[in-house]
Write a structure and sequence with these properties.
Number of strands: 5
CATH class: Alpha Beta
CATH superfamily: Hotdog Thioesterase
Distance between the termini: 11 Å
Number of domains: 1
Radius of gyration: 16 Å
Structural class: alpha+beta
CATH topology: Thiol Ester Dehydrase, Chain A
Shape: elongated
Length: 135
């Protein structure tokens, strides 16, 4: 399994007039979690793009459980639980301390610049083999 935690402080611009985080603000937080996860394992997204690999989102599922508010310190837990290949699923928990505020996942596919599916880069394949042996 691949796992990483990122933290952000809720900015005023991410909230509505009641100080509650607008639902669309969660999507950039998932990106923070996902790019942090890749970077933590030596695969910064910038390097993937420089090598001609892109990971567009093909699906997002997010369930809101409790509101986040202006000033909260939020932890985004991102995890890859299944051995990835051309497709990649990232699971998320968005938490305030130990309280889960939202949960969900994104699905991605490795593509080249014109958008054709392609195998992941060798460094990613090596990482997957090491973290998901026999899968």
């Amino acid at each position: 399994m691949l796992e990483h935690r990122s933290q952000i402080e809720v900015r005023y611009s991410e909230t509505d007039m009641m100080g509650i985080v607008y639902h669309g603000s969660y999507l950039p937080w998932l990106e923070v979690g996902r790019t942090g996860l890749l970077a933590a394992y030596g695969l910064p997204y910038r390097d993937l793009e420089a090598a001609g690999f892109y990971l567009p989102v093909t699906e997002i599922q997010l369930r809101y459980l409790r509101p986040a508010r202006y000033g909260d310190v939020i932890t985004i837990r991102a995890a890859v639980r299944e051995k990835p290949a051309v497709r990649l699923r990232v699971d998320y928990l968005v938490c305030r301390d130990s309280e889960v505020l939202a949960e969900g996942h994104t699905r991605h596919v490795f593509v080249d610049k014109p958008g054709r599916p392609r195998r992941p880069p060798p460094a990613f394949v090596e990482l997957a083999e090491a973290r998901f042996p026999g899968a």
